[in-house]
Amino acid sequence: MIENKSKPWYDACQNCTRSVIQTNDGVECRSCSDAQIVQRYRLTLNIIQGTATATVTLFEDAAIVYIGCSVNDYIQSTAEDEKSSKYFRDLETKSNKQYKFLIQLDERAQTQDNHLIVVAEAIERIQPKQKKETKQAVPYEKKRAKKNLKTNNAPTDKSIKIDSQKKKGMAIT
């Protein structure tokens, strides 16, 4: 489930990519005091698998892979009406698809009551497995080999071949 589906971006400092704050004079970066802003992706996903839950945040590169477009293209497509945007509609259907997330378990990763909170470094969609074509059964006749009545040995119409390279297995033909 996507937490911030209607606005999966934030106003960021163009210099250091940190979030900017509104001031009386406009906007300002908390980190470097720069006033140039740019929109960047910050998409928050709630993921459930079995009894395990996680909140995974996707920033710029991983979010582009997930959403399928740049943040500016997304903003333009949703400017008039979110519901008419192809990218917004695609976001609603992605909750049933499977993805692999590359996460780094470091000091930024947190756990609260068996709930993991992480940032995804990369993302990859898992393609559903194709159903294998079933081979049609070829009808065959089962024949019984007759024993050699003179020697009472194994059937005489079979031969045994030994694989000369492996010398481990035998094939009966």
TrEMBL record:
Domain named Replication factor A C-terminal: residues: 5-126
Region described as Disordered: 130-173
Any matching Pfam family: Rep_fac-A_C
UniProt name for this protein: Replication factor A C-terminal domain-containing protein
